[in-house]
Design a protein that fits this description.
By secondary structure, the protein is of the alpha+beta class. It has helices at residues 21-36, 46-66, 72-105; strands spanning 138-148, 152-159, 166-173, 176-183, 190-197, 202-209, 212-220, 224-230.
Length: 236
Amino acid sequence: MTTPSPYPYQAPPVATPPRNGLGTAGFVLGLVGLLFSPIPFVGVIAWPLVIVGLILAGIGFSRAKSGVATNKGLALTGIILSAVGLVICILWTVVFSKAVVDAANSLPTAPISAPGVPPGNEAGTSAPEQPAKQQATERTVVYRVTGTGGAKAGTITYTTDGMTTSNQEANVKLPWEKTIKLPAGEALQMVSILAQGSGKGSIKVTIEVDGKVIKEASAEEYGIAHANENIGSLGN
């Protein structure tokens, strides 16, 4: 009688480690970029940091959703930090452009007139007086966030003063609307809204100024819908 041979030893399968590297890198770059972005002149280095951070965090978030990474929350935080840092970089660029334009406009210019004729009295006739135009004293800005498929907004962040001051609301039921008033006649006047989905359906953000929609954007599930515009004279 022969003794049956034992089954050959089989090593247990090796678990594949989670691919968390890109999501973590996107979080770090977004955090560093956000810290540098408000600093004058030094903040220029924040541009590549927040852009690359936004890309890497987005890829890391996609990996987490597909199950090959485990740091979904960290990657999502990296997306938010990078997006906020990018908004601040854009605002600083607009402010710097305004300073350059104001400096150029402050240079003296000589009036142009025919020889021997006083300015405003060419050909010996007085220039007709132009009726004064009625200038509006303020502008009405309406922020709106709508959703489909039962979507909610995890967070809604919007500017309130035409510059960088902002408010934020969390876990917002849609549709949502906020109206603010801004003074008219400003050279730089930023309006911006950023809304993050809650993982269900899609969301859409809209900026309306004086009854006219000037900007809109949308996103799916946990995505971020962001719209901004300079409604001052330098942005027209």
